[in-house]
């Protein structure tokens, strides 16, 4: 890896999130149905777009990203985002039994509307839930003063709601109805 600063790595990581999760067409990239993109093509098209990195930098980002947002296939020829897509992809998730309680971090300002309408996926493919409150707080802080909802995930699962576990440990579901929220 050439001399890349932490700020440059953060910029590249955000760019990868944008391209691999939301706007691959921005650089002329076409993911397959499972969200995989050719690694060499990603590097070449990103560099042509003006976001410059090499394979070693890309490996470093994938290996050190604290949220494990990206994954390589076994031979490193393909890369994809682990979850959080707004584009249509099949990440090959399988319905799994979640823990009894999962957590959802949001901004305090969203609290009352969520208590009435539940947690919606909005422009994402799934609602994102955390297995621990600390992660949910980190998520909520990105949007303002954090508020953490406890979700009765196992009850939802027993009531036929599907849950998936992404490669980076995020629990996913399509919707959390308000009756499954525990209010402190």
UniProtKB/TrEMBL annotation:
Gene3D superfamilies noted in UniProt: 3.20.170.30, RNA 2'-phosphotransferase, Tpt1/KptA family, N-terminal domain
Query: Which gene codes for it?
Result: kptA
The lineage is: Bacteria, Pseudomonadati, Bacteroidota, Chitinophagia, Chitinophagales
Q: Which organism is it from?
A: Polluticaenibacter yanchengensis
Give EC number(s), comma-separated: 2.7.1.-
Its family remark reads: Belongs to the KptA/TPT1 family.
Q: Does the keyword Hydrolase apply?
A: no
Q: What does this gene product do? A: Removes the 2'-phosphate from RNA via an intermediate in which the phosphate is ADP-ribosylated by NAD followed by a presumed transesterification to release the RNA and generate ADP-ribose 1''-2''-cyclic phosphate (APPR>P). May function as an ADP-ribosylase.
Q: Cite the Pfam families for this sequence.
A: PTS_2-RNA
Q: Report what the protein is called.
A: Probable RNA 2'-phosphotransferase
Task: Say if the entry is tagged with keyword DNA damage.
Answer: no
Q: Which UniProt keywords apply?
A: NAD, Transferase
């Amino acid at each position: 890896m050439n001399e890349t600063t932490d700020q440059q790595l953060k910029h590249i990581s955000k760019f990868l999130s944008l391209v691999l999760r939301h706007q691959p067409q921005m650089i002329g990239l076409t993911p397959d149905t499972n969200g995989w993109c050719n690694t060499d093509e990603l590097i070449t098209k990103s560099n042509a777009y003006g976001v410059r990195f090499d394979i070693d930098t890309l490996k470093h980002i994938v290996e050190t990203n604290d949220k494990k947002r990206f994954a390589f296939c076994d031979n490193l020829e393909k890369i994809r985002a682990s979850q959080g897509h707004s584009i249509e992809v099949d990440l090959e998730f399988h319905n799994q039994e979640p823990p009894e309680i999962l957590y959802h971090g949001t901004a305090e300002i969203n609290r009352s509307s969520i208590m009435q309408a539940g947690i919606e996926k909005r422009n994402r493919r799934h609602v994102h839930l955390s297995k621990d409150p600390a992660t949910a707080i980190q998520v909520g802080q990105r949007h303002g003063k954090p508020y953490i909802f406890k979700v009765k995930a196992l009850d939802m699962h027993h009531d036929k709601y599907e849950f998936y576990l992404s490669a980076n440990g995020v629990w996913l579901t399509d919707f959390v109805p308000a009756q499954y929220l525990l209010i402190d």
